[in-house]
Each structure stands twice: as structure tokens, then as C-alpha cells.
């Protein structure tokens, strides 16, 4: 029996513990990641890269995962252009066909870490704002995954490279949604209240965007989290709901999709050995970074990043 008392002399209330399943999930996930990374290190040539190159790759992983896990936008938005530049410039030996697979592998570590951090925030008994009700959150997450995962897995089984029309459409939708977030953030600043329950139209549009995002994720390792996050931002859902839903959806998607790349050919493990720790670190600090920015600045940050990067990719394609 807890006999502690408060400073007023009355019995202190015991703080409710986080769910047992969450503690077990965290411990199990940490054990799997440590074992997987340990196996990678023991079977990789440590002399393939210099210390300076390793530090640069760590920082790439760190920056990408921080952005990804604070906004819900997949880390591939950073990984793809960074690795493409490094490979094309001959700075590091990366084959173009490996870039998407590398992004899937890195996000399996980084987005998983970020997902656990957001889950702990949602179930933190000291938190005053945990987003939409848990049952609603699970319903939204279940819908997103039920639409995105089949679309991604079917696409992976049917195509080995993205049709140009798909690439153009994904970038265009990203730019349009990014601009919409910026406009609604500007027009509604200080006046809109957080939305606590989605409408039927929200569910319908989330389903549609999840299918598009699942297809895009198969090709680019990003898509579902990006589109879901942008849509929820435009609808003014709470920061915690938006970020957590997009991050968890991205994490589950890459964990299901990474096997297609692991089984299809060799990966540059000497490079991944340095990027993965950076991604884990970024995934860990991303949640407090997002909370520090706050809902409005995070919306503007995420929307600006997506709009500018997607516009750039449209211009060079």
C-alpha cells in the first residue's frame, strides 16, 4: 500500500503506470534493434570509410530522422536526394538501385524509435494533451494501414521502378498539400480549435491518401506518412495525433516493405553502419523537438520542407 503523503498532509495519489504492453513493446523493439545492428557491425568492413565520411553519414541519418519523426514525413525525403548526390558525385560508392532499399532499412530503425517515443507521449499519465481519444486514434491508424499496406505490397510485387507519371503525380500532390497547409496555417492562426473527432469525409480522404501513399512508399520509401500528416495538419487535428499517426504509419509501412529489398540483393552495409545510429538518435529526440516548435511552427516547418523539396524534384526531373 502506498503511504506517501503530499505537502498538505493528505495521501498522495499514485501516478498510474504506462500500459504493460507498451513497456514490453519498447523492451522487445530495443532488443531487436540492438541485435540487428550488432550483427551488422560484426559482419561489416569497418575500414571501408574514413572517420570523416562516417561522421557525415551519421549526421545525414540524424537530420533526416529528426525531421521525419517530428513531422511524420518519411526520412526518405532527405535520404533519397542526399544518397543520390553522394552516389552520382562519386563521393561514396552507392548504386542508384540501392538508394530506396537503403532508405527503407534506415527508416526501419529511425521511424520505429520515433513511433515508440510518440506512443509513450500518448500514454503519459502526466500529459494534459494526448490528442484525439485513444479509440479514435486506433481507428484512424487502422484505416490508414489497411489501405496503405496492401497498396504498397502489391506495387512492390508488380513493379521494380516507378512509372514517370506516378513520380510526377506524387510530387505534385505533395506540393499542393504543402501549399494548402501553409495557406490554412496563415488564415486560421489563433482562431481554429483542435479537432477531436474525424468526420466521414475525413475517413474517406484518409483512405484515398493512404492508398496513394502506399503506392508512393513502394517506389520512394516515403508517401503515406507525408500525405497523412499534411492532410491532418490542414484539418487542424492536434499535433500529437498528427505526428504520432504519420510516424507510426510510416514505421509499420517500412517494416513490412523492407523485406523486398533485403531479399532482392546486397546492400551497402558499410554505409548503413554509420547512418543507422544517426537515425536512431534523431528518432529519439524528434518528439521533444516537435513539442518545442509547437503546432503552428511545426505545420509551417513541415509544409515548407515538403513543398520546397518536392518543387525542386519536379524541376530537376
From TrEMBL:
- Record-annotated membrane-spanning stretches: 21-43, 55-80, 92-116, 136-154, 166-187, 207-232, 239-259, 271-289, 296-316
Asked whether the UniProt record includes Transmembrane helix among its keywords, one would answer: yes
Keyword annotations of the record: Cell membrane, Membrane, Transmembrane, Transmembrane helix
- Whether Membrane counts among this entry's keywords is yes
The topology of this chain with respect to the membrane is: Multi-pass membrane protein
**Looking at the UniProt record for this protein, which Gene Ontology cellular component terms does it annotate, in alphabetical order?**
plasma membrane
Where does the record place it?
Answer: Cell membrane; Membrane
Question: Please, which domain of life does this record's source organism belong to?
Answer: Bacteria
Q: Which InterPro entries match?
A: TM_pro_TauE-like, TSUP/Inactive_protease-like
Instruction: Note one Pfam family from the annotation.
Output: TauE
**Family assignment from sequence similarity:** Belongs to the 4-toluene sulfonate uptake permease (TSUP) (TC 2.A.102) family.
Its recorded name reads Probable membrane transporter protein
